[in-house]
């Protein structure tokens, strides 16, 4: 069987230690565009492991804005001229858009023949986020919302990020708890340190304990080498404890001790180890109710409920649906290299009538599935899962006409603003209304804060 262990070095034949130590992403391709080396920074920036990247054509790995039209590396390999500091973006392993500055040059053999190319890329996201903060806004990554309830969350997040307080995020499944946790981490001064997520519901007690605290060699049969736990991995950064409401009372007691002492003991260790990781806990169950039912320790609840963020379910912020739909279509267009233009108005009204028990994740999945069936133009009803249409017929929600009309208006306005790079005057002209009418409508629809 083939070993899945990543290669120790990113390359052969030139100084790999240098390549590994620089903070810019670097990869090389051969004359057939196949990736022949991929350094550690490239792995970190793209979220793609060296193993996944090596031997694959670079455009498959990067999904870059330049790949199709004006690939910098192609230009360099064809002309022999380097490119320096060209800004573009690519899509990382989670489908997020990462802005980078790209430089390229050729690789040649002793005879001066071009044998491939090298591309270095610098992650500009932190810079972009700083620029946004200077402009008085804040970079919340993929997090978007126009509903008043979510606006409060979005406004609170940068303030929370400045502190190191423990945070509790509550909300139904798929409402974006992990996304908010990542946003807090990315705005925190410790953002260079890791964000480590653990799903407390996924593991039985003994495994969860060794996962969180790690173990020393010889701690139990089969523990040949020591393994650091998630607390150790998250040092200086953030430990995201997802589904904390599902943790057993026994594990809750152990976690409480760590939060009180800021130290933990790996299995088989003689000395406790210190931790300075910020804890963000999330739960889709109401922890206060669990406390009342004696299924969650009250003292632990007080420890983690220092700052509390409640994420509303999607059915309570349906005004966000058109924007989320636009965002997902944009993302999947980039990811799958397609040009889907939007959703049919009937589809949007169906979305507005649906209750979305799986929240934003469910909406995202529905759009991604539609991409399989819809090759171009707008997503139609026939591209939606049967269950959604059947449920709509069953519920036949007649009450939602008003909400649907509002959503359609909001979607049109958002599209016009996008087309005009947020110029209210030009968007109003495009929509055939006066600028002041557009402004009033945007206020009514909650697109502008009162
Ligand atoms: N406001 C938002 N804007 C855009 N995408 C979002 C938003 N909120 C959530 N998503 C997307 O929805 C999906 C689910 O989000 P996330 O995993 O953060 O939810 P969760 O509440 O942590 O879910 P679970 O409780 O099941 O772990 C993700 O793919 C995320 O990118």
TrEMBL record:
PAS domain mapped to chain residues: 18-63
Sigma-54 factor interaction domain mapped to chain residues: 143-372
GO molecular function, one term: sequence-specific DNA binding
SUPFAM superfamilies the record matches: Homeodomain-like, P-loop containing nucleoside triphosphate hydrolases, PYP-like sensor domain (PAS domain)
Top-level taxon of the source organism: Bacteria
Keyword Heme recorded: no
Protein name: PAS modulated sigma54 specific transcriptional regulator, Fis family
Organism per entry: Desulfonatronospira thiodismutans ASO3-1
């Amino acid at each position: 069987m083939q070993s899945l262990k990543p290669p120790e070095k990113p390359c052969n034949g030139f100084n790999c230690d240098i390549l590994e130590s620089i903070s810019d992403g670097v990869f090389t391709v051969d004359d057939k565009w196949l990736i022949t080396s991929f350094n550690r920074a490239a792995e970190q920036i793209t979220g793609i492991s060296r193993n996944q990247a090596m031997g694959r054509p670079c455009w498959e790995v990067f999904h870059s804005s330049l790949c199709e039209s004006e690939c910098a590396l192609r230009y360099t390999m064809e002309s022999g001229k380097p490119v320096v500091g060209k800004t573009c973006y690519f899509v990382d392993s989670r489908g997020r858009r990462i802005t980078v500055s790209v430089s390229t040059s050729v690789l040649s053999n002793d005879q001066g023949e071009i044998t491939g190319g090298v591309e270095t890329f610098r992650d500009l996201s932190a810079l972009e986020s700083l620029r946004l903060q200077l402009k008085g806004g804040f970079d919340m990554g993929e997090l978007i919302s126009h509903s008043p309830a979510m606006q409060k969350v979005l406004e609170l997040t940068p303030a929370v990020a400045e502190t190191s307080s423990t945070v509790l995020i509550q909300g139904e499944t798929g409402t974006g708890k992990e996304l908010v946790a990542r946003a807090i981490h990315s705005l925190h001064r410790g953002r260079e340190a890791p964000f480590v997520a653990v799903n407390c519901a996924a593991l039985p007690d003994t495994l969860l304990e060794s996962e969180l605290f790690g173990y020393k060699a010889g701690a139990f049969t089969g523990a040949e080498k020591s393994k650091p736990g998630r607390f150790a991995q998250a040092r200086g950064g953030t430990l995201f404890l997802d589904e904390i409401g599902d943790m057993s009372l026994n594990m809750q007691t152990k976690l409480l001790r760590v939060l009180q002492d800021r130290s933990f003991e790996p299995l088989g260790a003689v000395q406790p180890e210190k931790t300075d990781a910020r804890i963000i806990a999330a739960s889709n169950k109401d922890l206060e109710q669990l406390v009342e039912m004696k299924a969650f320790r009250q003292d632990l609840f007080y420890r983690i409920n220092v700052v509390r963020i409640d994420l509303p379910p999607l059915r309570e912020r349906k005004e966000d649906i058109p924007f989320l739909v636009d965002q997902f279509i944009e993302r999947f267009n980039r990811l799958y290299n397609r040009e889907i233009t939007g959703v049919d108005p009937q589809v949007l009204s169906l979305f507005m009538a649906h209750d979305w028990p799986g929240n934003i994740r469910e909406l995202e999945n529905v759009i991604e599935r539609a991409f399989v069936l819809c090759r171009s133009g707008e997503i139609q009803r026939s591209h939606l899962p049967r269950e959604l249409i059947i449920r709509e017929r069953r519920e036949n929600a007649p009450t939602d006409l008003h909400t649907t009309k509002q959503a359609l208006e909001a979607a049109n306005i958002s599209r016009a603003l996008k087309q005009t790079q947020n110029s209210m005057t030009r968007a109003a002209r495009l929509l055939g209304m006066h600028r002041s009418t557009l402004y009033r409508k945007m206020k009514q629809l909650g697109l502008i804060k009162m």
